Q: What sequence folds into this?
């Protein structure tokens, strides 16, 4: 079992930056592909970025490409989402998720939320215009 705790959310002006962190419990973090998802009020949850368990492959949604970067530090059991040039439309609750990928290729990742096994509680990101 993995517990995920997000941090780093808050209120920022449009054009500003935030870095979200997701700390995972346990000693098997490197066996999970990780993802960041977000959900705004009245909208479906969407995948923002994912990273393979090795960290060698990443996916970033077109809506945030060039502004958001996902990374991970397996030694610290932490995955990050660096968010730059934030826009009001980025405002949402951001969730970290873990997908058990030990028996899959080290470069595997998925954007399908139903494939993820564990979820954090979410952190609110508010962007003022």
A:
């Amino acid at each position: 079992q993995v517990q995920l705790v997000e941090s780093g959310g808050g209120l920022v002006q449009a054009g500003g930056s935030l870095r979200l962190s997701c700390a995972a419990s346990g000693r098997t973090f490197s066996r999970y592909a990780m993802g960041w998802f977000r959900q705004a009020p009245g909208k479906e949850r969407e995948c923002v970025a994912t990273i393979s368990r090795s960290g060698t492959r990443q996916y970033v949604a077109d809506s945030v490409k060039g502004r958001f970067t996902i990374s991970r530090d397996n030694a610290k059991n932490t995955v990050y989402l660096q968010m730059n040039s934030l826009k009001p439309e980025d405002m949402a609750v951001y969730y970290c998720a873990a997908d058990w990928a030990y028996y899959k290729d080290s470069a595997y990742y998925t954007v399908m939320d139903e494939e993820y096994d564990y979820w954090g509680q979410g952190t609110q990101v508010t962007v003022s215009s």
Notes: The chain has no helices and eleven strands. The first strand starts at residue 4 and ends at 7.
